[in-house]
Amino acid sequence: MVPDDERPYAVLDIDATLSDTSKRVHFLDRKPKDWDSFFAQAKDDAVLDEGLAVATTLGENHEIVYLTGRPEKLRRDTLKWLKDNGFPEGTLYMRRNTDRRPGAQMKIDRLRKLSDDKPVAVLVDDDIKVCAVAEKAGYTVMRADWGLDPETQPTLFEAQEKEGRT
Fold first, then answer.
1. Which of 3, 7, 9, 124 has the fewest CB atoms found within 10 Å of its own CB?
2. Bridge-partner residues for 93, per DSSP?
């Protein structure tokens, strides 16, 4: 195992990468979208087994960073969910409650800040746009395609990129 201070970052998204959002995405199909209900149920998401396996493996030789578009007001529930479901310890970066930047912009900004501290070895994310922007910026990306539901992906993509909400 690599000493803690020498371990590069492994950056992991949460929604649709580690957690199964399929039971709550229907709140975003409504007009107007029911963001309060969507976020209130995040604490009840099932674990995506592949996401847990990737996080656990990366945690052996990397410093884990969780980078999510979830708003800061969900910090307590998100930390509890990660701990209760056996995810490795890590630093959690969340969106400010009023931050509505596209997910790709919010995440690439954080990756750049992290890179000022030490290398980012890999970003694990389900969002195609986030992955493309990160790869273009020179980051190694693992596309989390194990949590995608073709029926819900357009709704999540819109929420991440057009509304800056998750």
1. 3
2. 67
Q: How far apart are CA 10 and CA 17, in angstroms?
A: 14
Cβ–Cβ under 8 Å, residues 33 and 156: no
| b/e map 42-57, b = 16+ CB within 10 Å | beebebbeebbebbee
Eight-state DSSP code of residue 165: -
The CATH number, out of the four listed (3.30.420.40, 3.40.50.1000, 3.40.50.2020, 3.30.930.10), of the domain defined by the range 4-161? 3.40.50.1000
CA distance 145 to 19: 12
Q: pLDDT of 144-159, one tens digit each? A: 999 766 555 555 555 5
Q: How many CB atoms lie within 10 A of CB 98?
A: 8
3-state SS assignment for residue 117: helix
The DSSP secondary-structure symbol of 15 reads: B
Strands 91-95 and 19-20: unpaired
**Six-digit token pair at 37?**
């209900």
| Whether this model's pTM surpasses 0.90 | no
Query: What pLDDT, on the 0 to 100 scale, is given for residue 98?
Result: 87
